[in-house]
Amino acid sequence: MEFNKYSKTVTQDPSQPAAQAMLHAIGLTRDDLKKPQIGIVSTGFDGNPCNMHLNMLAAKVKQGTHETGFIGLQFNTIGVSDGISMGTPGMRYSLPSRDIIADSIETVVNAQSYDGLVAVVGCDKNMPGAVMAMGRLNRPSIMVYGGTIAPGRYKNQTLDIVSAFEALGQKIAGDISEKDYRGVIENACPGAGACGGMYTANTMASAIEAMGLSLPYSASNPANSKKKTAECLEAGRAMKLLIEKDLKPKDILTRESLINAFTLVTVLGGSTNAVLHFMAIAHAFDIPFTLDEFQQISNRTPFLADLKPSGKYLMEDLHQAGGIPAVMKMMLDNSMLNRDCLTVTGKTIAANLQDVSSLSEGQKVIKPLSSPVKSSGHIQILYGNLAEDGAVAKITGKEGEVFEGTARVFNSEFEANEGIGKGLVNKGDVVVIRFEGPRGGPGMAEMLKPTAAIMGAGLGTDVALITDGRFSGGTHGFVVGHITPEAQTGGVLALVQDGDIIRIDAMKNTIEVKITDEEIAKRRASWTPPELKHNKGILYKYAQMVSPASAGCITDY
Question: Active site residue: 310, 472, 526, 550, which one?
Fold first, then answer.
């Protein structure tokens, strides 16, 4: 079998002397040109702790490929820090960056004729972007997660990035001194690694490990651990097996492995962003997957993890309790996973987990099935006159499961942040943030800043928030996002007025504004859609191309 199936196009074709000359220029010998070439893509850049160490990890992957006699060639693609851009206009670029990452990886691997791919990725959109590219390329591939950040510490308090966001709400409410406010900010993030709770980065890393596209323990090995370095070397070596077996992403990621992955997300209490990313990944792999299927999985799967944002512990605590493989072993033992799905080890999930130790005795991160955080999943898909095509709620049970209140309407996240800061939001309100969808934002920004301000102000159980935007994995409280149709395209959300009564029922899975169809028609007749916020550049292109949130915000449909 030819191991250089793609690279031979440039390395072995006698009509490509210029290409071969350029490869000699980078140091490859005539013998090297006969070897498989592995593209090693990193989203490393200096400006974000999630990504600051990834180029070093990618160099370890390259070393691993060379140890097997293959050629590893590094390249880079972009990243956007959600934590840094949150609450600013820059956050509108976060979700579009997922598709730019996918497009750029696809572009380089195809253009350079690489035989395989290892993606070394860190922050939220890096991982789904890389996996989407793997589906489009369908060449032997592995994803390496850059790993979770260590916990921060201040005054015997365990901190993470959301602690800094919520400290602002505490400051506004007068519950924290300026000195302690600064102390939280300066100590929340102690170094390299992705945000420490079960936020979107750790959610997607865990899911992709369950999908079979990363090595066991990739999701939970901490960023600055020797185990992470060893994993990178092993990922480089593992490409030899994948190339030899011609084991490709579409052989690994199937409908069954997607179901496995979302079942794990539900057990862990993961981010609502997983819904968008799973649908985009499913599209890249040509697997039909609808909103209703998330609900079906949620209905039959308990929420077991006491992890931040709604719980107490961080990803590093879960790693010490046995990591993602130990959680998956518990699930497998309780018939919650399809045991026959293949992985990048060349083995099935069941084979990978055969010798894995169970969750450590006495650990408190994952609750037993007999006493779950919630007997069904925290992610709920809602429908109603406010969301005819669906909305995604994150209901852990700690906020209650029904909320009815008075609409307090804001036409942007920035208006909402200002209003919350001025005390315009009161107990019993349903905060409505609209024109923040994929087209209206554009870019479907995350609403962590307003939700964190609400939590910090002590209103977390007394206020609901709904939006056509989305939420950070760090969001908690009674929240509903991804409302579709979005306001920009004429969804009923655009017609809601201050004082309207809104009812959210996570038991019946409904979200309704209590006005008549006649009143909706009357308001619609006098409504005009606002102009797009951008008329050129990537956000303008994104607004023109992007699918609705109910279809995953994809741009290649």
Answer: 472
- Predicted confidence at residue 473, as pLDDT, reads 66
Spatial separation of the C-alpha atoms in residues 2 and 163, rounded to whole Å: 52
Quick one: pLDDT at residue 309? 87
Residue 474 has pLDDT above 80, yes or no: no
The alpha-helical segments, DSSP class H, found in 368-425 are 413-421
Provide mean pLDDT across the span 187-209: 96
- Pair 43, 33: CB distance under 8 Å: no
331 contacts 337 by C-beta, under 8 angstroms: yes
Highest mean pLDDT of the ranges 306-310, 314-318, 456-460: 314-318
Q: Report the DSSP beta bridge partners of residue 39.
A: 73, 117
Q: Omega before 249 cis (within 30°)?
A: no
* pTM greater than 0.90: yes
Here the tokens at position 91 are: 């956050």
What is the fold, at CATH topology level, of the domain defined by 36-148+194-353?
A: Rossmann fold (3.40.50)
Residue 25's contacts (CB-CB under 8 Å, 6 or more residues apart) are none
The rounded percent of the chain whose pLDDT value lies above 70 is 99
Confidence of residue 36 (pLDDT cuts 50, 70, 90): very high
472 is known as an active-site residue: yes
Q: Do 124 and 473 touch, CB atoms closer than 8 A?
A: yes
What is the Cα gyration radius of the chain?
23
Contacting residues for 452 by C-beta, under 8 A, at least 6 apart: 162, 165, 166, 168, 169, 474, 475
Cβ atoms of 493 and 384 within 8 Å: the answer is no
What are the residues whose beta carbons fall under 8 Å from the beta carbon of 72, sequence distance 6 or more? 38, 40, 61, 62, 63, 64, 65, 66, 118, 236
Locate the domains of the chain by residue range: 36-148+194-353, 151-190, 379-551
Q: Is 306 helix (H, G, I), strand (E, B) or coil?
A: coil
539, 96 contact by CB (below 8 A): yes
Residue 509, pLDDT > 70, answer yes
Quickly state the pLDDT bin for 139 (edges 50, 70, 90).
very high
Q: How many residues does the chain have?
A: 557
Is CATH 3.50.30.80 the right assignment for the domain spanning 379-551? yes
Q: In angstroms, rounded to a whole number, what is the distance separating the alpha carbons of residues 26 and 34?
A: 15
Dist. CA 550–CA 301, nearest whole Å? 22
CA distance 227 to 220: 10
pLDDT of residue 168: 84
Average the pLDDT over 462-480 and give the result: 86
